[in-house]
C-alpha cells in the first residue's frame, strides 16, 4: 500500500511538471528591420533621395526598437535561467529514494 501511495505521488509530480513545461511564456520575437536598398542606379537614388532618406530614418528608429527588444529578451532569458538554476540546486539537494527492502 505504501508503494502504491508513493507511485501515485510520483505520477502527480510528473503530471505537474509536464503541465508546467507546457505553460512556458510566449516566445518573444525580435525581428530585425530591413536595411533600405541603395544598390540602385545613381539617377534613381538622386531622384528618390527624400524617400530613401525617410526609409533610412525609419530603419534607424526600428533598429532602436529591435535592440531594445533583444535587451528585454536577454533579460527574460537570464531570469528564466536563474529560476532553473535554483530549481536544479533544490533538486540536487533532495536525497535519493531508498529502495524497499524485501
TrEMBL record:
Keywords: Signal. Residues 1-23 form the signal peptide. It comes from the Bacteria. This is Uncharacterized protein.
Amino acid at each position: 500500500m505504501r508503494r502504491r501511495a508513493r507511485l501515485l505521488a510520483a505520477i502527480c509530480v510528473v503530471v505537474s511538471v509536464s503541465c508546467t513545461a507546457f505553460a512556458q511564456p510566449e516566445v518573444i520575437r525580435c525581428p530585425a528591420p530591413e536595411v533600405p536598398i541603395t544598390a540602385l542606379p545613381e539617377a534613381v537614388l538622386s531622384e528618390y533621395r527624400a524617400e530613401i532618406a525617410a526609409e533610412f530614418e525609419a530603419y534607424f528608429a526600428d533598429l532602436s526598437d529591435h535592440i531594445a527588444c533583444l535587451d528585454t529578451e536577454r533579460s527574460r532569458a537570464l531570469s528564466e535561467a536563474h529560476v532553473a538554476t535554483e530549481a536544479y540546486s533544490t533538486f540536487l539537494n533532495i536525497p535519493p529514494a531508498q529502495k524497499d527492502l524485501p
